[in-house]
Design goal:
Chains A, B: It holds the Pfam family Amidohydro_3. The structure is a homodimer. By secondary structure, chain A is α/β, with parallel strands linked by helices. Chain A folds into two domains: 88 residues, Urease, subunit C, domain 1, CATH 2.30.40.10; 291 residues, Metal-dependent hydrolases (TIM Barrel, Alpha-Beta Barrel), CATH 3.20.20.140. In chain A, 35% of the residues lie in helices and 22% in strands. In chain A, the strands form two sheets. The first copy, chain A, has an eight-stranded mixed beta sheet. In chain A, strands 5-6-7-8-9-10-11-12 form an eight-stranded parallel beta sheet. In chain A, helix 5 runs parallel beside helix 6, helix 9 packs across helix 10 and helix 10 packs across helix 11. The radius of gyration of chain A is 21 Å and the shape is globular. The two termini of chain A are 12 Å apart. The interface between A and B is large, with 36 and 36 residues.
C-alpha cells in the first residue's frame, strides 16, 4: 500500500484568490498559513502564473464502486424504468467484472486530476454483492489517504426492506468503516416509507452517523417522504446531519408546497444535494440558499451502466448547476461554484475547509480571466493541492490509476 | 480577402464511419468518391488512425454577430427579464464595440475547429445598428467560403412592429444577402401575433425565402403562436421551409395539446430547432423525430451579453440534447448526434449532405472507442474536412481568427 505524507509546506506565487488581486499563498504543515509576501527560505515554491485560486472542489455525491472508467465501453440497451437500471446493474456487476477497489481508484484519481479534494461516495450494499463494494472503496480510501478524502455512504441500491438480509449488511458496512447511513426512495422502491426511514434513522442513532437518502420520488410523493425525513431529523436532534440527495420533488409545480418544504428544511437544517439534472424537476438552488439551506452538488454516476455522461468534473457540474438554474450573471455563476465547493463542504461537515489562514491547504488553481470565465471554460486544472502537497498538475494526477 | 479553393481531393486511411468497421475514404473534387481501398496514386493522404468518421456538425442556431469571444470578459449584471437582456445588449453593442465582422469571424473559426461545417446564424436587424450586423456577417461568410458555409437569418431581435422602420430594414437585409426571414415572439415581444406573422410570411413569400422564428413563448401562448405559424405555412405552400426555434411550448404539461401540435408540425413539415435548455420546458426530441418532424440543434448565443456558457461545440450540444431528453442508451446518444448533424442539415435543406458516395466531403474525425463514447467524451476533433480540404486539425482551425 502506497504511503503518502498527509501534510505539506509550499509557497505558491502569483495567484488570484477567487479571481481577486494577485498575491501569494504560503502553506505550513498542510494548512494555509498566510497570503502575500515572498517565498520563505527553503520552502518548495511554485509559480501560480496568475491563476485563480479556489478551495478544493467537493464531489458530494457519486458512486465510486461501479464506474466503468478504463473498462471496455458498455453498450447501454437498458429499459426506461428505475427498476430496469437497478436490476441490470446487479447483473452486469457479475458479467462485466466491475471490481470496486480498482474502479473506485480510477475514478478517485480522475477526480483528483479534476480538482476534487473531497468525495462522498454512496457504495452499494445488497444481498448479492454483500460488502464487496464497501471493502473495495475502503481499500481505495486508505490507499489514497492524503491525496483525496473519501467518505463512504452505505447505500441500499436494490432496496432494503424488500430484500431480506440487507439491513444486517447495512449495519456490518457501518461497523466496517462506512461513515454515513444511506437510504433510497422509501415508498417507490422499498414500498414502506415508515419502515424504511425507521431503519435508516435507527442505524444513524445507534451508530451516531449522518444520513444521506436518495430521493427520486417526484411531486407529492417525494414531498411526503421529505416531510417524514424532516420529522425524524428533528425528533432525533439530528439537525445538520441529514442530506436529501436529488430531491426532485423540490421542483414540483405547487409553489406554495415548495415554499413550505424549503422552510421546513431550513428549520431542521436538512441539506440538499443536487446533480442539476436537465431532464427532471430539480431543487431551486438560489431559493434554497437564500432560505439558509445548505446545497451541495455531485456528479452522480460516472460512466456506468446507468448512463454514459458523468465525467467527475465538478467545474462542469458548476456549469450544469448554472444552466439548470438559469444562472447568467457573474454572481450567479459564482454561486454555482460555491455549491460545488463550500456547499458540499458544509453538507459533509468538513473541518477546516476554505481559503482562510488556518484552513487545510486543499487548493485548486484555475486558468482564467475572471472567476466566471474560468468556470465556464473548464480548462485543465493547473495545480491541485491536497493538504499542502501538489497531487495533480496540468490536468493529470501525479499518481497513476490501476 | 483570403481566397480558399472550394473543392479538394483527399484520401483518409483507417477511419470508422459512424463507429463501424475500419475502412478508408477517398474524396474527389470535394465529394465523397468511395469507401475502401488503398490511396490512389498522387492523392494527398492522411492517416485517420482508427478515428470515427461522421459528417460535418451542423450549428443550426447561433448568433455570430454578437459573440464576445476574444474580447475582455463581460461582467454580466443584467436583469432577469427577456426585455432586460434585449435592451442591455443594444446598449452594450455600442459601449463595448462589438464589431460584427470581427466577432463573427472569431466564432466561425471556433466552430470550424470544433467540427461544424455549416452554420445558420440569426443576425440582429434593428433601428439602432441598422444593417451593420448583416454586413459584418456577410463579410465573414464570403471570407471563409470554402471553410464553412454560413447561412444568415435577418433577425428582428428588438421587435419588428414595435420599432418603426424595422420592417424596411428586414427587407433591405434580404436584398443585401440574408437568406432567411427571422421572427421573434409574435405576442410576447411584438404584441401583435397576426401582424407580426403576416409581415414575416409576407417577406418570405415576396422573396421566396425560408422562415426561422424564435419562439420563447411558453405553454398555451406559445402553442397559439405555433398554430398561427403552421396555418400560414400551409396556406402559402411553404411546407419544409419553416423552422420554429426554441419552441419551449412543446414542453408544456398538457400532453394532449403537445400531441396535437406534433401532429400539426409533422403534417405541415414545420421544423423544430432546440438548444436543449436545462432551465426551460423544451421540445421532446424523440417524440418529434418519431412523428417525422425534423429536429435540429444549435448553441444559441456563444459567450455574449445574454450569458456566459455557450462554446460553439456541437458535440457538447449533442450531450446536452441527450441530458435534456434523458437519452442514456447508445442508440439514443446516437440520435442526439443525428439531431446535431442530419437534423440540422435537413432543417437547412443542405444539398449533398452526408457520408454516402456523391455527398459533399464535409467530414469530422472523432477519437473514441465507439460512437457514443466519442460523443460523451468530446475530445479535440482530430480532423475537420470541408469539401475535401482539411480545415482543422487536433482542435485547431488552420486559419487564424482576427
Amino acid at each position: 500500500m502506497r504511503q503518502v505524507a498527509t501534510t505539506g509546506d509550499l509557497h505558491i506565487g502569483n495567484v488570484r484568490p477567487m479571481g481577486g488581486a494577485a498575491t501569494s499563498v504560503t502553506v505550513r504543515g498542510g494548512l494555509v498559513a498566510a497570503f502575500g509576501g515572498a517565498a520563505p527560505e527553503g520552502l518548495e515554491t511554485v509559480d501560480g502564473g496568475g491563476a485563480i485560486l479556489i478551495p478544493g472542489l467537493v464531489e458530494a455525491h457519486t458512486h465510486l464502486d461501479k464506474t466503468l472508467i478504463g473498462m471496455d465501453w458498455y453498450r447501454n440497451e437498458v429499459g426506461p424504468r428505475l427498476i430496469d437500471k437497478i436490476e441490470n446493474e446487479r447483473a452486469q456487476k457479475r458479467l462485466l467484472g466491475i471490481e470496486p477497489a480498482r474502479q473506485s481508484a480510477r475514478q478517485a484519481l480522475l477526480s483528483v486530476a479534476l480538482g476534487s479534494t473531497h468525495i462522498r461516495s454512496h457504495v452499494d450494499v445488497d444481498t448479492e454483492i454483500g460488502l464487496a463494494g464497501i471493502e473495495g472503496v475502503l481499500e481505495t480510501r486508505e490507499r489514497y489517504r492524503g491525496i483525496v478524502d473519501i467518505e463512504i455512504v452505505a447505500f441500499p441500491q436494490s432496496g432494503m426492506l424488500i430484500r431480506q438480509g440487507t439491513v444486517e449488511l447495512m449495519e456490518q458496512a457501518l461497523k466496517l468503516g462506512a461513515q454515513v447511513v444511506g437510504g433510497l426512495d422509501p415508498s417507490a422502491i422499498d414500498r414502506d416509507p415508515k419502515g424504511h426511514l425507521d431503519v435508516v434513522f435507527g442505524l444513524a442513532e445507534r451508530y451516531g452517523r449522518p444520513v444521506d437518502i436518495h430521493l427520486h420520488e417526484t411531486a407529492e410523493l417525494g414531498a411526503f417522504s421529505m416531510e417524514l425525513i424532516i420529522e425524524r431529523t428533528k425528533a432525533l436532534g439530528m439537525q445538520g446531519k441529514v442530506t436529501v440527495s436529488h430531491a426532485f420533488c423540490l421542483g414540483m409545480t405547487d409553489q406554495d408546497y415548495v415554499a413550505s418544504l424549503i422552510d421546513q428544511l431550513a428549520e431542521a437544517r436538512v441539506h440538499i444535494l443536487t446533480t442539476a439534472p436537465a431532464f427532471k424537476s430539480a431543487p431551486p438552488v438560489k431559493r434554497l440558499v437564500d432560505a439558509g439551506v445548505v446545497v451541495g452538488a455531485g456528479s452522480d454516476g460516472v460512466r456506468d451502466t446507468w448512463g454514459p455522461y458523468g465525467n467527475a468534473d465538478m467545474l462542469e457540474r458548476a456549469v450544469f448547476v448554472g444552466l439548470r438554474n438559469n444562472f447568467r450573471r457573474d454572481d450567479e455563476v459564482a454561486l454555482a461554484l460555491d455549491v460545488c465547493t463550500h456547499g458540499g463542504a458544509r453538507m459533509m461537515e468538513l473541518e477546516g475547509y476554505g481559503l482562510e489562514p488556518g484552513c487545510k491547504a486543499d487548493l485548486v488553481l484555475l486558468e482564467g480571466e475572471t472567476l466566471a470565465e474560468a468556470i465556464v471554460s473548464r480548462r485543465k486544472r493547473k495545480f491541485v493541492v491536497k493538504t499542502g502537497r501538489i497531487v495533480a498538475r496540468d490536468g493529470e494526477a501525479l499518481l497513476k490509476a490501476p
